Amino acid sequence: MPYRITKPGGLLTLLLLSALLPRAGAQTTLPDTVPIRVDLRDEMGPLDPIWAWWGYDEPNYTYMKDGKKLLTEIAQLSKVPVYVRAHSLLVTGEGTYGLKWGSTNAYTEDENGNPVYDWTLVDSIFDTYVERGMKPFAQIGFMPEALSSKPDPYRHYWTPGASYEEIFTGWAYPPNDYEKWAELIYQWVTHCVERYGREEVESWYWEVWNEPNIGYWRGTTEEYIKLYDYSADAVKRALPTARIGGPETTGPGWDEAATFLRTFLDHTLTGTNYATGETGSPLDFITFHAKGNPKVVDGIVQMNMGAQLNDIDQGFEIVASYPELKDLPIIIGESDPEGCAACSEADYPHNAYRNGTMYAAYTAASFARKYDLAREHGVNLLGAVTWGFEFEEQPWYAGFRDMATNGVDKPVLNTFRMFGMMAPTRVAVDQEPLHYDARMIVEGSVREETDDVNALASKGDGSATVLVWNYHDNDELDVPATPVRVELSGFTEDGPALLTHYRIDQAHSNSYTLFKEMGKPQPPSAKQIAALEAAGQLDLYGSPEWVEVRNGRVTVELVLPRQGISLLRWEMN
């Protein structure tokens, strides 16, 4: 069938299937049809919303115009409360902000060295979440200037292209007084309970610091463990039922990070607590990060999903090796295609994947494999934080890792809209012959000639959903689209079912395509912005239609271009 997209302003564009095939002279034979078989009786347990977690470096963007708009959209796409993690919640400064920088002035000292607490800006951040039904994944960090053991220089002024080491200034150092630090945390949690109520704060997650095995922590491993002990004790004294965790290391696929994670976990079980003198330390959940590693090869961006999944695989393996900890929730505190959200495409060409559908398809394919790896290791995966928000005062589509640009949604946000529409119980997907699975991607990423065409499926009361993607590490769109046949069985009754088909590709749910057609205006006009906003929403692929379920079965044929995603949803009367 042809692709049909209606653009704002009444312009109707028809893109025939031939437009998705290679240029003249290239191979134009369609690949073989890929069968996707789903038996709704083959239940795998809850499809937990591990995707409903977001984070970002710049906390002050939270309560700015575009920040509030995006947070509203993120909250609305999810059936469950979304958790939000932000850096720099305790950094000194009068709300100053910049790339990879933010401040709240929560803690200063008077001329006699007495603490002065000011929760005004932290409250503005948390209020913005709570007002939208979201919840803080509250990061305890970074070091206030008055408590830093090396405060000068304190603020950085990093810009894309500069050395990353410029970031790690006075805020990254251990405290000069652990008792004052602990009292700060105690007062903060106490204030939150008074402001938001005990029951609300009990539903949050508190974590200590960020990536303490690299420059974000200018102390030793033991000094981080000491910081954790004092922080956890302070949180529990203020609210014994609060949930506290860590250590938010970088990816455990890196040996040094894996060693740090194990050292931390060993301490929580058998170490001497620096704050209390008792054995062990409170640990209600475990956190680490996972990142891919794209690069430019022969003039095109080549992703490395295998690197990200390897971090996750190694982290799960470490947690599973501790019988006492295996059932604890795991939160992948940052889970992304690469490591620097604030590194724009202009300075880092390998980040050119971010504006278009590659980021969207990568997200669909990678999240499905996170579920699979957790199941393989038998661990409790609670969440995987997407470290991508929005950036203020930047050019349109500058290639930052964000969900929206200047208030206009990018294709990747529509992948999360699809996740939010999935039914609650996961069911198995049978694909023969198998092209890729989680283990194959860990070992070799998605580099074969064949694309990764697969699906994530679920069912609810009288409904079924199948999310189908066509992904490849190489950002080459000038390749044949793939025919897909989705075969569902196991419906409990026959009769009509309403089929709704949503699509992300070059012509659907894609504001970037329209921006390029406009000539990449900087900035767009008011009329153009309205058109871009409409194009950034999730598109239907044709009108909903009634299909007949016979003998508990139904089949749908579709053609999916590379880096395209379809969400199919059936609803019975």
TrEMBL record:
Entry annotated with the keyword Signal: yes
Domain Glycosyl hydrolases family 39 N-terminal catalytic: 36-535
Keyword Magnesium: no
Keywords: Glycosidase, Hydrolase, Signal
Signal sequence segment: 1-26
Cross-referenced Gene3D superfamilies: Glycosidases (3.20.20.80), Glycosyl hydrolase domain, family 39 (2.60.40.1500)
GO MF annotation, one: hydrolase activity, hydrolyzing O-glycosyl compounds
Catalytic residues as annotated in Swiss-Prot or TrEMBL: 211 (proton donor)
InterPro entries membership: GH, GH39_cat, Glyco_hydro_39, Glycosyl_Hydrolase_39
UniProt GO BP: carbohydrate metabolic process
Family: Belongs to the glycosyl hydrolase 39 family.
Protein name: Xylan 1,4-beta-xylosidase
Organism: Neolewinella xylanilytica
Species classification: Bacteria, Pseudomonadati, Bacteroidota, Saprospiria, Saprospirales
